[in-house]
Design a protein that fits this description.
By secondary structure, this protein is mainly β. The chain is built from two helices and 33 strands. The chain has helices at about 110-120, 300-310; strands at about 1-5, 10, 35, 40-45, 50, 60, 65, 70-75, 75-80, 90-100, 100-105, 125-130, 145-150, 165, 175-180, 185-190, 195-200, 220, 225-230, 235, 245, 250-255, 260, 265, 275-285, 290, 335-340, 350-355, 370, 380-385, 390-395, 415, 420-425. The strands form twelve sheets. Strands 9, 10, 11, 12, 13, 14 and 15 form a seven-stranded mixed beta sheet that branches. Strands 24, 25, 26, 27, 28 and 29 form a six-stranded mixed beta sheet that branches. The protein has a two-stranded antiparallel ribbon with strand order 1-2. A hairpin with a 4-residue loop joins strand 18 and strand 19 (about 225-230). It is elongated and about 100 Å long.
Length: about 425
C-alpha cells in the first residue's frame, strides 16, 4: 500500500503487480516505468528516456531534462538577460534552464566554439564576444551555477553534442557573459543557410528572430521560410508558427502541415491489437494514452462508446461497457476525460471532452473497455425499422458473406433480396453472375 494524499483513505492498495515499502508515498514500478503521483499509477517512460525499478521520474539523454508537468524530456534552453532580468537580449548574462531550474554557466574550458553554438541555438547568426569577471551584477547571486566544463568542438552544431558537467567548483566571478551577432528588423536567421534572410512581403520580424510574424489565419513555415495560409477547418492568430484545428478530435501535424484526425484503436490485455473487444487507446498526435471515465453508466458516456465503435469501423457498441483492471493500463497516461456525446453522434468529432485527466477522474485504471458490435462470416446485420441493430442473421443456404456484412453473396443465377433477407432466383430471360 501507499499513502495517498488525494484520497480520504489514508493507505491505498498498490495497482497491478507493483509493491511498496512500509510507510511509502508511492508504489515501485518496473524498469522503463515511473510512478505518476497525479494519476496514482505507473506510466511508461517516453521513447527517449529510461528508468530503473522504483523510479518516480525518467532519465533523459544528454542535453535533455525530465519535465514532470508535461511528462516529456525537454531540451536544455539558454537565454541572455540584463541586470533587470529583461529577456530577448542580444548580449548579457548567459543562463541555462534544465531540470534543476535556471542558473548561470561557469567559464571553465568555455571557448569561442562553445559561444558560437550557444548563439546559434538561441537563434542568432553568430557571436561577437564573450567574457567573465569583467562585471559583477547583484542578480548573478540569485541564481545557482548549473553548468561547468562546457566544451563544444569547432564543427559542433548543437549544444546536445557538447560535453558539460552539472557539478562545479566555481564562483559567480566566473559566470559567462555573452554578446551575439544579430539580424536586423524584418529579417530572420535561417539555420539552414546560416545567414539573415528578409521576411516575405506582408510579414515582419523583431531583431534576432528565427521566424517572421505572419498575419492571422497564416502560419510561419520554417521549411519554406514563408508565411503559408492555414488549410480549411483551421485558424491561427497573428505571429503563429502553427495552425489550430477547429474540429474536435483533430490535431495539427507540424511535419505535414495539416490537421490529422486522432487515431483510435483497441488493445488486448497483453498489449497487442484487439479486434472488436479491448481497451480503448487514442493517439492525439502528441502522445498515446487512455480516455478515462468515472461513470460508465451515464448516457453521454454510453453515446461516446457507441461513437467510438463507429469511429473504429464497427456498427455500434454492445449494451454494456465493462470495467477492467489490466496491468497494461498502467503503461498509458490519461489523455482524455469527461467524454460526452449526443444520441445522434456518429463519430468522435461530434463529441465533447476534456484534454487530460479531470480532477475527479485521474487514474488510468479507469480506462474504457469496449465491446463493439460485429457479425461473424456468413451472417448479415439485422436492423429494425428504427435502424437499431438487433443482431446477426444467418445467410441463406448456399450463400456466403465476410464478417460485418450488410448482404450475402448468392450463387450464380440468384440475387440478394435485402428486404426479405433471401437469395431470389432470377426471372426468365434474366441472369446474374
Amino acid at each position: 500500500t501507499y499513502y495517498n494524499k488525494n484520497s480520504w483513505i489514508t493507505c491505498t492498495d498498490c495497482p497491478g503487480n507493483t509493491t511498496s515499502r512500509r510507510n511509502s508515498q508511492f508504489c515501485e514500478c518496473p524498469a522503463q516505468h515511473y510512478w505518476h503521483f497525479a494519476s496514482a499509477g505507473c506510466l511508461k517512460c517516453p521513447f527517449n528516456s529510461t528508468s530503473g525499478p522504483g523510479a518516480t521520474s525518467c532519465e533523459c539523454g544528454k542535453g535533455f531534462y525530465w519535465d514532470a508537468l508535461s511528462r516529456y524530456c525537454l531540451r536544455y534552453s539558454f537565454s541572455l538577460v540584463d541586470q533587470d532580468l529583461s529577456q530577448d537580449m542580444t548580449s548579457g548574462l548567459l543562463l541555462v534552464t534544465n531540470g534543476q531550474g535556471q542558473g548561470t554557466v561557469c567559464d571553465d574550458r568555455y571557448s569561442d566554439a562553445t559561444a558560437r553554438v550557444n548563439c546559434h541555438d538561441m537563434g542568432f547568426p553568430g557571436f561577437q564576444s564573450w567574457w567573465f569577471g569583467r562585471e559583477s551584477w547583484s542578480v548573478q547571486h540569485t541564481f545557482p551555477i548549473l553548468l561547468d566544463e562546457f566544451v563544444c568542438a569547432d564543427n559542433t552544431s548543437s549544444y546536445s553534442d557538447c560535453s558539460y558537467s552539472t557539478l562545479h567548483d566555481c564562483t559567480h566571478d566566473e559566470d559567462i557573459f555573452l554578446a551575439c551577432a544579430s539580424c536586423p528588423h524584418n529579417s530572420f536567421y535561417s539555420k539552414e543557410l546560416q545567414k539573415c534572410v528578409p521576411c516575405p512581403l506582408g510579414a515582419f520580424s523583431r531583431p534576432n528572430s528565427l521566424l517572421c510574424v505572419c498575419l492571422a489565419d497564416t502560419y510561419w513555415n520554417s521549411d519554406a521560410g514563408d508565411c503559408v495560409s492555414c488549410p480549411p477547418n483551421s485558424t491561427s492568430t497573428q505571429g503563429s508558427d502553427a495552425c489550430e484545428c477547429s474540429e474536435a478530435g483533430f490535431y495539427w501535424d507540424s511535419e505535414h502541415h495539416q490537421c490529422l484526425q486522432w487515431k483510435f484503436r483497441l488493445v488486448a490485455e497483453d498489449g497487442n491489437p484487439a479486434e472488436s473487444q479491448g481497451l480503448l487507446v487514442v493517439d492525439n498526435g502528441y502522445e498515446t494514452g487512455l480516455p478515462v471515465s468515472c461513470d460508465l453508466s451515464a448516457a453521454p458516456f454510453l453515446n461516446f462508446a457507441r461513437a467510438s465503435c463507429l469511429e473504429l469501423g464497427f456498427i455500434g457498441q454492445d449494451t454494456q461497457v465493462y470495467p477492467h483492471d489490466w496491468a497494461i493500463q498502467e503503461e498509458y497516461p490519461v489523455v482524455m476525460s469527461n467524454m460526452s456525446c449526443s444520441n445522434s453522434a456518429n463519430s468522435f468529432a461530434d463529441c465533447s471532452y476534456l484534454r487530460g485527466p479531470a480532477p475527479h477522474c485521474l487514474n488510468s485504471l479507469m480506462g474504457v473497455y469496449l465491446s463493439c458490435v460485429t457479425c461473424p462470416p456468413n451472417t448479415t446485420f439485422h436492423f429494425d425499422k428504427y435502424s437499431q441493430f438487433r443482431g446477426c442473421d444467418p445467410c441463406p443456404q448456399g450463400s456466403t458473406s465476410p464478417a460485418d456484412s450488410f448482404s450475402c453473396l448468392c450463387s450464380p443465377g440468384s440475387t440478394w433480396n435485402a428486404t426479405g433477407k433471401t437469395c431470389d432466383y432470377c426471372p426468365t430471360n434474366h441472369y446474374s453472375d
